[in-house]
Prior knowledge:
CATH topology: Arc Repressor Mutant, subunit A
CATH architecture: Orthogonal Bundle
Number of helices: 7
CATH superfamily: Homeo-prospero domain
Helix content: 55-70%
Number of domains: 1
CATH class: Mainly Alpha
Strand content: under 5%
Amino acid sequence: MHLRKAKLMFFYTRYPNSGILKIYFPDVSFNKNNTAQLVKWFSNFREFYYIQMEKYARQAVADGCSSADELTVARDSELYRHLNLHYNRNNQIESPESFRMVVEQTLREFFRAIYNKRDIESSWKKAIYKVIARMDEPLPDFFKSANWMEQLGEV
């Protein structure tokens, strides 16, 4: 259940700190090990997310796209459906519109970097990560509840 909850939280925040995690997992008695585990989950979620972004951005370059503004992400797009399936396998919540916007922005950032050949630099993704981290938003209050799953029907 905690992993499922963390995946759903990813729609709102890609870079939660341990303080945020402690607030939103009230049923966990935090210690060094399980805090590290939760932080690691989000690291893994980001890794999957960014791998998908790079893949789709490289494909757009290969397909001849010449402007990031040409790249749009709709809820029914292959990329969006793929991400939603990964983080929200059972469609427990409707992913927020803000996540679609984050996906679109991330795809555009990766496209610009690849198109402008910044990907030859060793740390080319760091600038993208900073942009996306600023797009994190507050988590809905229902995630704070120990019985958050029951509250999903009310959201």
